[in-house]
Design goal:
It contains nine helices and no strands.
Length: 151
């Protein structure tokens, strides 16, 4: 039942039904307050709503609940990146990738952070790693093309 609710919440989030997704997560957390996946999804929902403070709190709770899970580190990186805290975002993305190196979006986002810091060779390598994992990832294709074009 818990997994089904989390799957429903993820689907609702993809449909931008954030309130309904949050309700599903809250139900999971009532049953299992330390469910790292539900905590991370709450962080992602808060990030989607541009509530950085809440997103960071939820992500930190998710990391505490399951330090070996890559997703909350990625979510925390998204929040830091959106807030312009590039060094913190880089650390979070690197932590996420250390736990699961096969995340195309994390490699892409790390590349974006590195690009914003002017570290273009490292950024290109991150975009290439993202594309090696998921050749159809449009953001990584666009980001790599932009660096290549601008050089």
């Amino acid at each position: 039942m818990t997994r089904a609710l989390l799957e429903k919440a993820a689907q609702l989030r993809e449909q931008y039904a954030l309130g309904e997704a949050r309700h599903c997560c809250e139900e999971v957390l009532r049953r299992s307050p330390q469910d790292a996946a539900a905590l991370d999804l709450m962080a992602a929902l808060a990030a989607d709503e541009r509530d950085a403070e809440a997103a960071m709190r939820w992500a930190q709770r998710a990391i505490a609940a399951d330090p070996g899970a890559a997703a909350p580190h990625y979510t925390l990186g998204r929040v830091h990146q959106a807030e312009g805290r590039l060094a913190e975002a880089e650390t979070c993305y690197r932590n996420s990738l250390a736990l699961d190196a096969n995340q195309a979006r994390a490699h892409n986002n790390l590349g974006s952070v590195l690009q914003m810091q002017g570290r273009l060779a490292e950024a290109m390598a991150s975009f290439r790693r993202a594309l090696a994992i998921d050749p159809s990832l449009p953001q990584a294709n666009q980001n790599l093309a932009a660096i290549t074009r601008d050089r």
